[in-house]
Amino acid sequence: MTIGAYVVAYGEPARREAEGLIQSIRQHCHLPVALVAAQPLGLGEQWIPRAEVPGDRGARLPKLDQGQASPWDQTVYLDADTRVHGCICAPFGIL
Length: 95
Fold this sequence. Notes:
Elements: E1 3-8, H1 12-28, E2 33-37, E3 46-49, H2 60-64, H3 66-69, E4 74-77, H4 90-94
Parallel strand pairs: 1-2, 1-4, 2-3
């Protein structure tokens, strides 16, 4: 059973926030990260290349598509502006 985090980041502000999120995940746990974006960040994330859809305000389509797009058996979706302050792996064990 594989587990991981799923993050969507389009545009420079979201990409900067995603960098902070990935750094906070690495600081507190060893959860792999799948990033949906037009370009990878180069932080060891698994990049899911997907161009931004014009008119898709808030990048809702790739967020709603995580069940199909995520490479993990069990996935936690995290907004790019989220910061992890402790290990978030425990809930996977009870699913």
